[in-house]
Amino acid sequence: MRPTTAWQALAQRPLSFLTSSWPWRSLAYLSGGVVVGAAAALFFALGLAAGIALLVVLIGVAPLAGLVLASTVVGRVERRRLRLVDLDPLSDPHRAPDSPGPRAWVTARLKEQVTWRELTFTLLSAASLWWLDLLVLGFSFGLPALTFASTDGSTWPWTVFGAIVLLASPYTVTSWAGARGALARTFLVPRGKELGEELQEVRASQSRLLDSFDAERARIERDLHDGAQQRLVSLGMTLGMLRLEVPPNSPVTRLLSEAEDQLSTAHKELRALIRGLNPPVLADHGLVAAIEDYAGRFPIPVQVDLRLPERLSRQLETTMYYLINEALTNIARHSGATCAQVYGRYHSDQLLLNILDNGRGGADPGKGTGMTGLADRVAALDGRIQVLSPVGGPTLLQVEVPCRFA
Amino acid sequence: MSLRLIVAEDAVLLREGLIGLFERVGHKVVAAVGDAEALEKAVRADRPDLIVTDVRMPPALGDDGLRSAVRLREEFPGLPVLVLSQYVERSYALRLLDSGGGAGVGYLLKERVSAVTDFMAAIERVATGGTVVDPEVITQLVRLHQDPLERLSPREREVLALIAEGQTNAGLAKSLFLSEAAVNKHIGNIFNKLDLPVDTDGHRRVLAVLAFLRS
Q: Second label for B189, Cα 20 to 30 Å away, from A149, A239, A320, B124?
């Protein structure tokens, strides 16, 4: 375990730490702290004075807002400087503004919580931290320097004390630098929602994965449709022609009928396969039509009551289709239900879906691999699935997915 | 009967196969096209007795063929159209039936082509203003209407499905091995039980049943 912060370095190897780069880094950190803090103090004092003086005529808001925005610069500098004493990665908590231009940038920054944390930290630096930096540096190096400079016969204990202080200075400086670094980190790292960027990145890659699955599925479906299916139809035509050529009571007709039956089975199987892959009606007419079609083919009666203001996004549509599909398949397979219901509504940016059956209940969503995969898909879209299935039934599967219509 | 047909199908193999079939039984294919735009152009240039078209075609490879068919029926009322589909999609079939009052339309699975005699009968029925619906579609529709149909006997349900497909009384009698009188009796019972107007015949009867199944 290589130490990643000044404090860890100090705690892990107190002796070899002396010959490492950490004391020097800490020294650089504190010296920089004095410079940045002093500059910030000066700048803020002037800005605050100007702002308050001008506030009477309202223009003062500009310098005050300027101070707030300037603190984001301080925040950035402090994050950069933090690398001296803290090697752990630190991402920028600020988001990119929605649109280009300085105005959008200012509004975005003023709305962000992290901007105000940076302001607090800047004020703290300006008001006290840099003094403390100076104090620690002064104590560690200034005091020994003074004792050495004014050394004579009677003050030797002071000189000894100065020497001890100087020898201990790497520890003193690193201790304070570590503390200051930890403080800076708590103020300047992204929190909660500010981590969103990274989470969204993960989510984006998940949804890219979903997209590539869907695209692949569509491709296979197209290949089957354009290839195998067409050939089978063509084969059927040839058989039909053959039937026209053969006299009706020839022994060949029996074989022909057999061939036709086999062909018909092949057609049915291929159709079912293709429908499972990528139902054409979904692409053409959307979720409601596709589910109604699916319900029409279903072995038990399914009441479909889906109302959506318009077509969903392709990804959401596909996910919801397979989800309903899988849920109904599970109902038919395991629940012993005699009827099922699919109810869906959209309101306030949420799509709510209830799938209800009158089966025997006791469904364990963790058991079906199909359902787990779907739960993952739904999670990738930020939604969630809940199952309510007491023993004896009925079973309710509830899905909530955020969905926005552009 | 010899018909002048326009065939629209993007797969060359099937297009040629269809042309061969039609010419073999004495129809004339006046144009064979491979996409929806060309289909509309061909129909506007030379109005045929019947269009036979695929659903999924260029340019967009969605339901372009079906859309063109619906558009053409609006433009030329009464233009008979038979749509051949790789899929049983109820919504496709129903959209087609909604165009031009459902007279002279057919929606069949492509694979039905191999039963040449039946297929040719369907072609003629559509060309003369009848309605033909694939049995698979009817199966779906019937399944959706479990409740009211429970009043019917299994035999009556069979008859109803065949009516909905667009079968004539003679066709019904042949497929069910019944006399036409028996068929008529079944039909009367069905229409009574479902409160459908009894005086309908021909394709209006088909449409009445379809309308019931869709309600």
A: B124
